[in-house]
Design brief:
A two-stranded antiparallel ribbon has the order 1-2. It is mainly α and about 240 residues long.
Length: about 240
């Protein structure tokens, strides 16, 4: 498996043929590589679309089941990565529609943003750790900023929110986003501009309030000067 993992790294579409062929032939090593390589980013994307860790994990499993069942129909019209992300977005949309019909009256069991699960073993916002040199106040301030950005990002309407997530958090290129969403580059760029502007507008009251707090002002100003939210969320 280690030898295969060395060979099967993320690569341009025209070099994916051996990986895709192995998957189509039912190679267990290929599927193990696929899950090891894509599970974390796919879960991250779905979690930000659904906001519920349990639903996100269930939906992630559904995505890989869809990949397993559908790989023989994969024609290579897009990259393997964008094909998987497209399935993830589609399954997330299905889950949200199901939730709106069946779960509106249920109490959410989602862990609050910024809190920990499993006795501190896993952070809802990701596996990034604070710099050891940070003071307790700085750590709290960073987490507060991340939590607020995540919370306000949830309020951005579709399809602008998904565009921001794919570009600024998941790090997809404009071309990859266009493939994933099956739209044009111009549409992707337009959605990003509108999504980022909507997020900035929602964060303005928080920026003004937090800028009056000693020590927090620099962190907020740092975000205020950035177009990209990823550095704030994953910091």
């Amino acid at each position: 498996m280690s030898e295969m993992a060395t060979v099967w790294v993320a690569r341009p579409r025209d070099e994916e043929a051996p990986i895709v062929e192995a998957l189509k032939c039912g190679s267990e090593e290929a599927y193990s590589w696929l899950i090891n390589h894509y599970h974390k980013p796919v879960y991250s994307l779905i979690h930000r679309l659904l906001h519920d860790p349990t639903d996100a994990e269930d939906t992630t499993q559904e995505v890989f089941l869809k990949v397993y069942r559908g790989i023989k129909r994969f024609k290579g019209d897009s990259s393997l990565k964008t094909w998987i992300y497209r399935i993830a977005i589609h399954e997330s949309s299905n889950k949200k529609r199901w939730w709106s019909r069946h779960k509106k009256q249920e109490t959410s069991m989602e862990v609050p943003i910024g809190s920990e699960r499993n006795g501190g073993a896993e952070l809802v916002l990701g596996d990034t750790l604070a710099d050891d040199a940070e003071s307790p106040f700085e750590m709290m301030a960073h987490e507060e900023v991340r939590a607020r950005v995540e919370a306000e990002l949830r309020q951005i309407p579709e399809p602008f929110r998904t565009a921001v997530i794919l570009r600024d958090i998941e790090g997809l290129s404009y071309e990859e986003i266009a493939e994933t969403l099956e739209t044009s580059l111009g549409t992707v760029k337009s959605r990003l501009v509108r999504g980022r502007e909507a997020l900035r507008h929602r964060l303005e009251p928080y920026v003004r309030a937090a800028s009056r707090e000693p020590g927090a002002a620099a962190l907020i100003q740092d975000f205020k000067l950035k177009k990209n939210v990823a550095e704030v969320i994953s910091r």
